[in-house]
Amino acid sequence: MTNIVWIKHASQLATLAQPSKGPRIKDDMNNISIIRDGSVWIEDGIIQAVGTTRQLEEQFKDRAHEAVITDAKGHLVTPGLVDPHTHVAYGGSREREFERRLQGATYMEIMNAGGGIHATTTMTREAKEEELVQQTKRRLDSFLQHGVTTVEGKSGYGLNLETELKQLRVMKRLQAEHPIDIIPTFMGAHAVPTEYKGREEEYVDYIINEMLPAVSNEKLAVFNDVFCEVGVFTPEQSERILEAGKKYGLIPKIHADEIEPYGGAELAAKVGAISAEHLLKASDEGIAAMAKAGTIACLLPATALFLREQAAEGRKMIDGGVPVAISTDCNPGSSPTTSMPLVMNLACISMRLTPSEALTAATYNAACAIQMEDKVGSIEPGKQGDIVLWDIANYQELQYLFGVNHVRSVWKKGVKVIDRS
Questions:
Q1: 390 by DSSP, 3-state: which?
Q2: Cβ atoms within 10 A of the Cβ of 223, count?
Q3: Which helix (H) or strand (E) holds 76?
Q4: Cα gap 172→354, rounded to integer Å
Q5: 3-state DSSP call for residue 11?
Q6: Is the confidence at residue 65, as pLDDT, over 80?
Q7: Which stretches of 103-160 are DSSP H helices?
Q8: pTM (2 decimals)?
Q9: Crossing angle for the helix pair 161-177 and 117-126, nearest 10 degrees?
Q10: How confident is the model at residue 83 (pLDDT cuts 50, 70, 90)?
Q11: Concatenated DSSP letters for 12-50?
Q12: pLDDT tens readout for residues 308-349
């Protein structure tokens, strides 16, 4: 029996329909393709038709009785949000470090003292797989509550073969068990583990010669990410790791220029990375190189806020022709949030994105950053029925009324998974 969902009479249906392939840049990021009195028809999880309610009433006049109808009058409807940068699968918590930072300790000081990534690595190594599944599931449930229907998830809290594989297997299992789509990224190069201190090149060799082949053999990841930062991995080490990953079919991503200018944006362009993340300290030359290469800037304004740092220059990047996506950076140390609506608010407030640019960055461009734009990120025939109905009338309200979760209903592949009506 065909499962039909018909959402009709939306005050604004922001389809984000894209006339051409590839992420949006410059003025095109403001084109969110609004249909007033909009309507969406979904069959067996796939969008079949999009238009005005009058158009779809005429098109499906003989089949209206088959549909489960939602009257969206007075409400905004958008694609399900896409979070293209998370560390969602990890063990434990680090709330005590938050207090230490408020007392003056820096992120790198805490990390170099055995906290930060190293603390979560210890907790993740010690956690049984089932414990990681349950902790990660709770975070995914919270993402859904905030309108997120697709996430990228990184490993990187194992820093040894056994635990890196455990993190990736947890995400693979939850991809099958949880409504959210989880796109996996291998990030064995998140930090140099304490047992390799002083032997950093040996750890790089370990990633290349043992971790990457094992991840590839089990087909556990799509992307390969590295933290290119002073005191973590040098640009030369980062390039070796990313080029090695390409040989196994893993697409490069890079944590770049987060804490100090370090040439990470330039390296992202050089290696053909699909995206560069953070970029708080990216140089003008790096921004220009990314624009030329078409590398997506994945910006994380909640992380900058939590670390009390100036946000990345999103306005400059968009004006310079860099495609921009935004993300929560959900992680236990620098951005323990699952609220993409808050991230959209912060993108407008701290990075001077327009409301329509922020919505594009959280949907279509975010999907491009994880190679999911053919399935999610916009409301178009042939794509998954991933839809959010918001308890507001227009997209400007979504960005203006900040710090509030306006989600009313969420459909994932045509199935209603959140209902606050």
A1: strand
A2: 23
A3: strand 76-79
A4: 36
A5: strand
A6: yes
A7: 107-112, 117-126, 129-145
A8: 0.97
A9: 70
A10: very high
A11: EEE----SSSS---GGGGG---EEEEEEEEEETTEEEEE
A12: 999 999 999 999 999 999 999 999 999 999 999 999 999 999
